[in-house]
Fold these 2 entries.
Entry 1:
Amino acid sequence: MTGGLTFRPHHFLCALGYRGKGYSDAFTANMTQIVTNGLFANGGDHTLIRVRAAADSLCAPCPKRRGEGCTNQAEIDALDGRHAAALNLKHGDVLTWGQAKMRIREKVRPDDLDTLCKGCKWLELGLCKSALSDLHRGA
């Protein structure tokens, strides 16, 4: 697969929990385009996503991005490691958004986010837990 969407391992759950908030206006606009207008839209479950161990499609306009990395790279690496292990993802894997959601549903419970997402500033908003609970209920 060339081009298309790329996600770091932790961004699968970030996309699931996205509800219009971000680090900057440009970041939020990019997330809305990819997630709300893409993955959450009709047919979005068929979107192919390649797992990447560096800056990805969601990172593109992030104010914390530094080349292929991040200003808090150690924290991002830890998040990615925990998420990759929980979701059985490795660099280069390709899956559809629908397959990703099925994997998330099978492997991650809402309370798992307290460990998986430890240190993430978005965790305290409860958006990701709510979205994951909805996924488990089939909503």
Note: The beta strands are 5-7, 48-51, 65-66, 69-70, 94-96.
Entry 2:
Amino acid sequence: MTTPTTPSRGAHAAQDTRIAQATQDTQAAQATTPAEASVTGSGSAAEDRTATITVRLFAGAAAEYGSDTALVRGSTVAEAIADLTSGASPQAATAIERSSLLVNAVSCTDHSRALKDGDRIDVLPPFAGG
């Protein structure tokens, strides 16, 4: 007949320590509120919603801006245009403000429209002629 082996006191102490640590970790995780989690997470909620947008400028808008493309950030059309004009000359800002906008090739007059990564804004200044 074999006798069951009993763990040594050292093995019990190590196991008790692991159990106590796991319990503390679980309690700490449960004590964290959603607000604390968002503060300790990477970036704020506003940053997470900000998209990178490609802007294509045409004709006079491109000439005044000094480039026919730009990458901007914004969660709405208004924010993207504000980012575009923030470092632009007053003449470029005026040309952009007077322009029609397309978002993903569709006319857009609602500057509160939400944007997502990869969207494209086309800036089309008024054209004249026949």
Note: The chain has a mean pLDDT of 76.
